[in-house]
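In practice, a research group might receive sequence data for several interacting partners and want a quick structural hypothesis before committing to experiments. The following worked case mirrors that situation: the sequences arrive first, and a predicted assembly follows.
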Amino acid sequence: MLKKVMIANRGEIAVRIVRACAEAGIRSVAIYTEPDRYGLHVKRADEAYSVGADPLRGYLDPAGIVNLAVQTGCDAIHPGYGFLSENAEFARLCEEKGVTFIGPSSDVIHRMGDKTQARDSMRAAGVPITPGSDGNLADVNEALALADKVGYPVMIKATSGGGGRGIRRCDSPDELRQQYPRVISEATKAFGSAEVFLEKCIVNPRHIEVQILGDSQGQVVHLFERDCSIQRRNQKLIEIAPSPQLTPEQRSYIGGLAVKAAEAVGYVNAGTVEFLLSGNEVYFMEMNTRVQVEHTITEAITGIDIVREQLRIAGGLPLSVRQEDIQHRGYALQFRINAEDPKNDFLPSFGRISHYYAPGGPGVRVDTAIYTGYEIPPYFDSMCLKLVVWALTWEEVIARGKRALDDMRLHGIKTTAQYYQQILGHPDFASACFDTSFVPSHPELLNYSTKRHPSEVALAIAAAITAHAGF
Ligand code: ADP
Ligand code: ADP
Ligand code: MG
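A structural hypothesis for the assembly, expressed as tokens:
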């Protein structure tokens, strides 16, 4: 088993990893840049080291982080999600320096992080992929010819994209000519690579992804699926496990496909295979070779601690479960509470949290790094809290979600919480009938009232008086 783990990340996922380490008896080491000096991950880890004044550079410096891990006697590095988590060079450097990278091998990251190479591997393994490119596009003419062949609408996508960025839908040749250079420039800016490819656009699909785990003994299992169809601009807002929209046959078919995909590349560690589902058709979309933001809901329905399994796998231990022992029970929802103003085109709303009261009660989990008085820095992701609810039935989980969102108090910034109440209240959500077009086709859900409840106003006044009096 591992003894000391460096966490090359920040925010809620760094705190999540600290917790898993503590439960496994592993020492945790945090890193932080200047704006994160008062971050919760710094307070909670066993040791913490500054990696510079620049807000981002220290988190994105492979050599600096690996050297620090060696100097501080860490035997492994957990990259979390985002930052260097899917950076093959970082994993390779870890391998070179004899530090265990908590993820798959650098070769597998390289192969799956490049979306066109991933498509090649899946094609070869007999996993269905969306019709489209055979490698990267050379120029717009190739894109136009290919679009004619597969039929409009099509998607132009950044080959090394992620986080929902670098994806544009094109409904006609004119639009394709317009969007092509835009995706290239977006990809170059965001991912440092100008490579793009084309896929047929699956109209109004469901986003279904499967959590998998693979150990170094060659065992691969799946932990069922998550439905992430509630998205805005290709970014997930509310995630659900298991999907309330799948038949048991579809569930076992898609789980099997994900295991086949993982086995085809010799996958080790936790990962996610993402699919688009349209009617009865399933298409492989991409594989994420890291822990995902929404791993929490799979933990809720299976009882398996995914980060703990990652630590076990990286320490050379076999998975603690066999496929036939893995079961799911009830439903879980995760709300990504973002520091954004839904009423103002989801503009980021950074600033000081004047008052935070955590929701609780049965079936409620909160993963966050915020606290009352915490100042959300403007340099990072706007997601500031993950609220996860679990209940035995679909009806109950919706009621619990509404109740927990209502329980929570988060003052000082604007968030997406109230908007999620509107989604939960929609009849299509209640009857479990939605696809990725749900959010864009219901702009009226943004017309909610932000008028505060009288008790909340009283609370805000009390907080202001307390702050003023310097208590
Ligand atoms: P998940 O895939 O876990 O559901 P997201 O797609 O929202 O989550 O990504 C999680 C975080 O990682 C976000 O901050 C996102 O911006 C970042 N991210 C994801 N993929 C990449 C990438 N290829 N390059 C840079 N950042 C990425
Ligand atoms: P990222 O790496 O940014 O997560 P993905 O390839 O997973 O990018 O796509 C993100 C989202 O974009 C999907 O969940 C889906 O809603 C939409 N999308 C991507 N490709 C297609 C496609 N070919 N047809 C329809 N929607 C797509
Ligand atoms: Mg994706």
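Before designing any experiment, note the following. The mean pLDDT is 96. The radius of gyration is 22 Å.
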